[in-house]
Amino acid sequence: MKNHVCKKALYMLCMFFAVVPSTTASAQSKSVTGTVSDANGPLIGVNVMVKGTNTGSITDMDGYYSLEVPRNAVLVFRYIGYETIEKAVGNHAVLNIEMVEDSRELDEVVVVGYGIQRKSDLTGSVTSIKAEDLNTFPASNVGDMLRGKAVGINVTATSGRPSSAPDILIRGKRSLTGGNEPLYVVDGVPVDGEGFANLNNADIKSLEVLKDAAAQAIYGARAANGVILVTTKRGEKGKVQADLNTYMGTQFLTKNFDFYSGEEFYQLRKEAIRTEMGRMPEDAHEVLMDAIMEKAYADKNFTDWEKLMLNPAFVQKYDVSIRGGDDKMRIAASLGFYKQDGMAPNSDYSRRNLALNMDYEIYKWLSIDSNISYARSKQTREDGNFNEYITR
Predict the structure, then answer these.
(1) Nearest of 145, 157, 164, 165 to residue 209 by alpha carbon
(2) Which residues, at least 6 apart from 248, have a Cβ–Cβ distance to it below 8 Å?
């Protein structure tokens, strides 16, 4: 009797351990859904990420999201202008989140056309972007760095050539017949789009975007398409600060069009001729009708034109700056060099930057500011010559 009971207990124990692993394995992940909103209703485009991973989603028009996550996952909810929220999934299958505005951002100082103000005092629509947010990824010009950094700003590449200046639209196109480029103002001085593209991002302290009529009214008709204000770094009283920043990298093509191989091209032409003539071509001469192509096909000497034309390109950037001053004078000086080899022949780009900002206080009520900048860029053309642009 005892042996029978022991055998039965042992059998039950073995069955338990046989079932538990499969149950545990199936319970490692689960589906979580929910909505994200604020006091005014659903929020569109909220980033919902699994903490510590690249797994994530964004909310739709109704603030809805859905994710497949590990059971012990922690979800991170991020949205511009709102406090970041972290929530453990636990046993929740539905996780609804209500976000609140980040009150700390209202105390930030924002540069506007007529001085500086606190965000909480602004009546117009102004977006402020800090230098560290601009430099989250390497780019050849400041315009490309604005991509995805603020709501209402659409940055579109105009060309694949190195340092091609992108199109920047603030709240969409506002003109049917005129230009839609915003007004660029660097340290109080209006510049054109090329001058903005030639700025050295290492010299930028902050960047503000004025979007609506109330914010940009001081600039008049020139600001019809919005205003981008750039404030560069200046010397400060105290210890002299020297910075050296550099990076190097390689650009390469990850995926392009799927071209025909030599054999596929031959079969395509053969089938096209059969369809047109109603019979199968007799030989390669009738298919290709070109002596050079016939010889290449006979030798199986096919050319990969993509590999021949597009090669990995080397990118390098060097910046050195020094800033400091005393009670009377403050100076900030910088040198920058950027070079990007083109992946296609005759498309190389290089730029040299020099900046010198000086502030001299003559009296407590009188001071003199000086902003000196120089940029020289060189873009190689298809014919081997180059275009040169100088900004002073």
Answers:
(1) 145
(2) 314, 315, 316, 317
pLDDT at position 109: 57
DSSP bridge pairs for 265 = none
The pLDDT assigned to 176 comes to 66
Amino acid at 102: D
Q: Which residue has the tokens 């502030």?
A: 359
pLDDT digits (tens, 9 = 90+) for 93-124: 899 999 887 755 555 655 555 555 555 445 45
pTM over 0.85: no
CA–CA distance, 288 with 277 (Å, rounded to integer): 15
Cα 347–chain centre separation: 22
Which pLDDT does position 90 carry in this prediction?
85
